[in-house]
């Protein structure tokens, strides 16, 4: 794993995989039989895992967005925040917070997990006192993360736009970055100061004309900043960011930011209908809306790999390598 974003994407993929392996078969069986037939224990585990994994996914998307925000808006503090030990704490925290918030419901103190007869599926029900944590979970594990994500993206676009205007399209900034890096003599033994591709900047037309080359193309100042980070004993740094310029993004950064934004938009579209039905009971009387909400949440676990493949050449190569490996093993 090369950077923090990859760690978060792996965590998001694990959450989707667990949902597919546990919740999807039980949900398919319930739809097929038109009744819950799997006993009380699974009836309690089913909503616990579903709500918990929902929160893990959204907190992970929030973590990726904050990661991009810090990298672009505060690049100098990025290496200090996204070290490997801190990444482990962030991942563990997303799981502990998501499932820890459901412990009172699991123990029956604040609502309980059981069969919701009107909808024919297991969910969070009100306890004997009429209390339910659904509104609280909606605010803490859905609404607030979504608001923070929107704020981060708005701030990122503002800073990037401002930096682009100030640098007149980025040309002057690139030239200044080359002079700055040459004057600081980054590297050891003189090798770190060798310019990329014999000191020639990759032409913008060449970058735009070759999509596959985009994902592997770095600007001079970004490449040297990475060398500086690795050769300055920043052993636990997981940054691929430039630590020099606020608001600067490479073509690769822009494409990654767009991909995360699409993932968040797809998540929001898929989970918002079912979330509304869980909070406002009168909406469940609209059977078409209720059914479409369930279908969307089951689709969201399968749509992320498609987004990865469509928007990232790196993921396309990884998928192709995985497929080719299986083909070679089968032929052997």
UniProtKB/TrEMBL annotation:
InterPro entries: GPCR_Rhodpsn (IPR000276), GPCR_Rhodpsn_7TM (IPR017452). It is found in: Cell membrane. Residues 1-308 form the G-protein coupled receptors family 1 profile domain. Keywords: Cell membrane, G-protein coupled receptor, Membrane, Receptor, Transducer, Transmembrane, Transmembrane helix. CDD domains: 7tmA_GPR84-like. GO terms for cellular component: plasma membrane. It is a multi-pass membrane protein. Coiled coil: none annotated. GO terms for molecular function: G protein-coupled receptor activity. It holds the Pfam family 7tm_1. Belongs to the G-protein coupled receptor 1 family. This is G-protein coupled receptors family 1 profile domain-containing protein.
């Amino acid at each position: 794993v090369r950077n923090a974003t990859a760690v978060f994407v792996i965590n998001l993929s694990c959450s989707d995989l667990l949902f597919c392996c546990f919740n999807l078969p039980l949900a398919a069986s319930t739809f097929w039989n038109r009744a819950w037939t799997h006993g009380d224990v699974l009836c309690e585990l089913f909503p616990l895992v579903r709500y918990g994994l929902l929160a893990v996914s959204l907190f992970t998307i929030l973590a990726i967005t904050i990661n991009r925000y810090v990298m672009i808006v505060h690049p100098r503090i990025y290496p200090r925040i996204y070290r490997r030990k801190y990444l482990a704490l962030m991942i563990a925290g997303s799981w502990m917070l998501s499932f820890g918030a459901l412990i009172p419901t699991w123990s029956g103190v604040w609502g309980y997990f059981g069969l919701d007869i009107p909808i024919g599926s297991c969910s969070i029900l009100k306890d004997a006192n009429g209390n339910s944590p659904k509104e609280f979970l909606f605010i803490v594990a859905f609404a607030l993360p979504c608001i923070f994500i929107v704020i981060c993206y708005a701030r990122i676009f503002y800073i990037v736009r401002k930096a682009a205007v100030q640098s007149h399209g980025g040309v002057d900034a690139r030239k200044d970055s080359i002079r700055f890096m040459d004057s600081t003599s980054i590297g050891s033994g003189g090798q770190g100061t060798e310019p990329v591709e014999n000191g020639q900047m990759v032409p913008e037309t060449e970058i735009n004309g070759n999509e596959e080359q985009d994902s592997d193309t770095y600007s001079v100042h970004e490449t040297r900043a990475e060398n500086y980070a690795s050769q300055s004993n920043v052993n636990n740094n997981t940054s691929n960011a430039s630590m020099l310029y606020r608001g600067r993004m490479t073509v690769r950064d822009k494409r990654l930011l767009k991909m995360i934004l699409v993932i968040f938009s797809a998540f929001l579209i898929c989970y918002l209908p079912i979330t509304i039905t869980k909070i406002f009971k009168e909406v469940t009387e609209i059977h078409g809306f209720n059914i479409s909400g369930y279908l969307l949440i089951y689709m969201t676990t399968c749509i992320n790999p498609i987004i990865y493949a469509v928007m990232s050449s790196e993921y396309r190569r990884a998928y192709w390598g995985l497929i080719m490996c299986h083909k070679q093993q089968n032929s052997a």
